[in-house]
Amino acid sequence: MKISRPRGTRDFLPEDTRRRRNVENILRKVVRNWGFSEIITPTFEALELFTLKSGDGIIGELYNFTDKGNRAMTLRPELTAPVMRMYVNEMQANQRPLKLFYFENCFRYERPQKGRFREFWQFGVELIGSNKIDADAEVIALASEMLKAVGIKGSLHVNHLGIIRHLLSVLKTEQQSRIMRLVDKKDDTGLVDYLEEIDAPGHLRLELMELISLTGSEAIEKARQLTGDIPELEEYQELLTLLEAYGVDYIIDFGIARGLDYYTGMVFEIYAEGLGAQNQVCGGGSYQLIKLFGGGDVASTGFGLGFDRIMEICDIEPDDDKPVVIIAMDSTRIEAVETATKLRFHMPVYLDLMKRSFKAQLSYADHIGAHYALIIGESEVEAGKVTLKNMDSGKQELLTIEEVIQKMNC
RNA sequence: GCCGGGGUAGGGUAGCGGUUAUCCUGUAGCCCUGUGGAGGCUACGAUCCGAGUUCGAUUCUCGGUCCCGGCCCCA
Prior knowledge:
The chain is of the alpha+beta class.
C-alpha cells in the first residue's frame, strides 16, 4: 500500500533542506543582531485563541480537532495570536520592549496554489510594549533588512491607518471596518457601492476615494489638504523620516489597510516579483491584541514573512560542506572505520557501506562530488599513514591523519 | 466551495483503440579484485484509482483522487 503525502504538504529532500536551513539561518542571524530573541510556542492551541482574534468564520480554514478530553483544538494557522497568548500567560512583568521572533510551521485548510500550501513556514517578529513610532520604524527596517540579506528585492508599501480612520470617524464603527476591508481588497466599485448604500456624505466619498489612491512623494502633502493638520499625519511623517535614517526604500500607499480591526496605526506590506498571484512576502503593522487575550492595554508591532515564498525566489546556495570519502580495501576496513571516527570530529566523512570494489568506491566519491578521497589500503596501513587524493586535480600524497586534518583546514 | 490545464519506470519523455509500451537519465553490477569522470554490456523499474463503451482501453466517456495555475479567502 503506497501512502501519498497529504495535500498541500511537501517533502523536503536533502538538497531542499540544506537550502532552506541556510536561508533560515541567515534570517536568524539578522534578527538576533537587531536584538530579538527566538521563542517556540505549541504546534496546536485552543481553537478559541484564533476565533477570538479572527472570528468564527476562520474555522473553515483551520485544521481543527477535538482531543480525547473533548477540548476544541487546532493546529496553529499563524503565530501572532500564540505569541500574544504567551506574553499574557508568562511575560507581562518583563521589561519592555519585548523583542521576540519565531520561525515555525503553520497550517491552514486551503486550496493549494503557487506560494500557498496547507503546511507552510512563517518567520515573524513581534515587538511588544511600545506604542511609539520608533518601534514601528525599527520593525519595518528589520523586515526590509531581512529580505535584503537573502537577496530579495521587494517593494515596501507603508501606510498609517490613523489618517483614514480620522476621515471615517463620522461613521459607525462597523461601517468603518467594512470600508477598511473593501479598501484592503482594492475593490473600488464595491467601495463606491457601499458608500452609496450607507448614504455617506458626498465630501467624505470624494475625500476617501482620493486618499486611498494617494501614493508617491507628494502623497503626504495631498493628504494634508484632505484632512488638515492632524497628529496622525505628523506621526506618519515622523515614521518616514526614521525610515530614511534606517536607509529603507519605501512607497507611501494610503491604500494599504490590512482589513482587520485590531491594527491601530502603522501598516505595511512587501511585494516581490516572480510569485504569481501570491506575491506578498511580508505583512505587518502595529496592533492591539493583548487586551483581547486578557492582558493589559499593551501595544505591539510586528510582521510575518512568508518563508516558502521567499524560498521560491531566493537563489542563495549554501556553501559546500567538503566531504571526504574514505576508500578502503576489504582487508583494511577496520582501519578505515577507526580513521573515519577520528576525522568525524572535524569534517563530514563517508565510509563505504556497500562492500564496493576499490574502483567503485572511487567512482562513488566522484559521483557525490567529493573534492577529496582518502585512500586507506594495505600499504598505507603499513606506513601508518593515509593517501589523500584531490579529486579535482587527481594529485595524491601520503600523510598522517593529523596532516590531513590540517590540510583540510579544519 | 468554484473555474481551467494536467497525471506513462526514481526524474524527464514517446505512443493517442491491438506495440515484447519508446527513448534519455537514474540506480545496482560487470567488462576492469590499488585509482574516478568516457565507452560497452546486463539487471531493476511505469500506463493515478474505479466504472463504462469496445472483441480489445495507456489511448475514448464518466466519476474520484492527486498535481499545477487561478477565483474566494488571506489571520
